[in-house]
Amino acid sequence: MEFKFTPENIDRINKEIAKYPVKKPAVMATLYIAQEQNGYISNEVIKEVAAILEMTAEEVLGVVTFYTMYYQKPMGKNHIQVCTNVSCMLRGGYDIWNQVKEKLGIGNMEVTGDGKFSIEEVECMGSCGTAPMLAVNEDYYENLTKEKVEELINSLK
After folding, report:
1. Which of 21, 35, 59, 111 is the most exposed place for a label (fewest CB within 10 A)?
2. 125 falls in which pLDDT band (50, 70, 90)?
3. Quick check: 57 pLDDT over 90?
4. Which CATH architecture has domain 7-66?
C-alpha cells in the first residue's frame, strides 16, 4: 500500500527542512510527522521519507530502528510506556509494569484485541525525580501508585 503525506504534512516537513542547510537533518521530525499520519513507520513510509529528504531507505531505517519513539507496527490507541530504569525501578517501576501487563493481558509491544491499548517497557524517560512514571501516548504520569495506575487505565477504557 502506497504512502503519501497529506498537503498539510508536506507543509510541516518543508518548514522542518528550511531549518537546515541540507534536508537530511529533518529526518527525525519527518518520521514523527509520518508516524502521526500513518500510526507507525511502514516500509512505504520509509521509502517516502527517503525520497523527500534525498536519503537512502537504509539511512532512514537506521534512524527508525535506533530510536524507540518510532513504531514499526501498529500500536494501540493508548500506547502505554512504563519506565523500569534505575530510579523508577527503585520506586516501584516493575510493580507498575507488572500491574499494567496483568490488567491488560498483554506483553511488551503487544496490542489488546480491541486495539485500544499497547504497552512497552522503556528505559529512561527523564522523570527520575518523580519516579515511578509512565506515559500514555504523549502524556506523562508521575509519582505513581498502584491505585493511580488502576484509575488511569480505567479512565482510558
Report:
1. 21
2. confident
3. yes
4. Orthogonal Bundle (1.10)
Q: Global pTM? A: 0.80
> Across-strand partners of 83?
122
Q: What angle do CA 38, 41, 42 make, to 5 degrees?
A: 95
| Structure confidence at residue 73 (pLDDT) | 92
Does residue 157 surpass a pLDDT of 90?
Answer: no
CA nearest neighbour of 106 among 71, 54, 153, 146 = 153
Domain ranges of the chain: 7-66, 78-156
Measured CA to CA, the distance from residue 135 to residue 32 in angstroms comes to 17
**How far apart, in whole angstroms, are the C-alpha atoms of residue 75 and residue 85?**
22
Retrieve residue 29's grid coordinates: 521530525
What does the block give as the cell for 153?
487505565
Position 68 scores a pLDDT of: 80
